[in-house]
């Protein structure tokens, strides 16, 4: 659509640009309904190349990042929208959902790593006990170089 807009007047170029942005953001909305999050991001990126502060493109891309587990980029997009339009209810709600996801992920990570470190500590303790037992056994056994003392041998 309007790939060769060099023959257009400035007003027509602006209108064509607005139309392209609307097409990309609407396509992204359709792809979001289908759960095609990577395609959502691609369409939003195209819209943002044309209009870097487009609220819908930033919001939808943030939602796509969130759905794909890239919480850092989702947060960046949501914060950017809220810096442009602080009262945006949809983005405020999406950002609140994202914060809950991050909190849930942090708790899960904490449990996972806590259990991991606990298991590692238990394994280290078991290894130390085995080493100590082996050392005790080694000290109790006579070596080939040192024959066992003959209990009848008294000098």
* Rg over alpha carbons: 33 Å
Measured between the Cα atoms of the first and last residue, the distance is: 109 Å
Strand fraction: under 5%
Note the main sheet: none
Mean pLDDT: 86
Shape: rod-shaped
User: Helical region count?
Assistant: 5
Helix proportion range:
over 70%
Structural class: mainly alpha
What are the segments in which pLDDT stays under 50 over at least 5 consecutive residues? none
Order of helices and strands: HHHHH
Number of strands: 0
Describe this structure in words.
The protein has 5 helices and no strands. It is rod-shaped, with a radius of gyration of 33 Å. It has 155 residues and is an all-alpha fold. Helix 4 packs antiparallel against helix 5.
In short:
By secondary structure, the protein is mostly helical. Helices cover 75% and strands 0% of the residues.
Which keywords apply here?
155 residues, mainly alpha, 5 helices, rod-shaped
Give the topology, please.
Layout: H1 10-33, H2 37-50, H3 55-67, H4 71-84, H5 89-140
Helix pairs in contact: 1-2, 1-3, 2-3, 3-4, 4-5
């Amino acid at each position: 659509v309007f790939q060769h807009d060099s023959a257009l007047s400035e007003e027509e170029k602006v209108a064509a640009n607005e139309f392209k942005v609307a097409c990309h953001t609407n396509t992204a909305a359709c792809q979001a309904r289908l759960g095609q999050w990577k395609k959502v991001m691609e369409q939003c990126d195209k819209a943002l190349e044309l209009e870097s502060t487009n609220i819908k493109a930033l919001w939808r891309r943030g939602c796509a990042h969130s759905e794909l587990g890239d919480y850092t980029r989702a947060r960046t997009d949501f914060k950017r929208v809220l810096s442009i339009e602080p009262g945006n209810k949809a983005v405020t709600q999406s950002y609140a959902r994202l914060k809950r996801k991050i909190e849930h992920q942090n708790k899960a990570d904490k449990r996972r790593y806590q259990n991991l470190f606990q298991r590692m500590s238990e394994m280290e303790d078991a290894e130390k006990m085995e080493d100590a037992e082996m050392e005790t056994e080694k000290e109790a056994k006579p070596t080939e170089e040192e024959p066992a003392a003959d209990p009848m041998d008294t000098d």
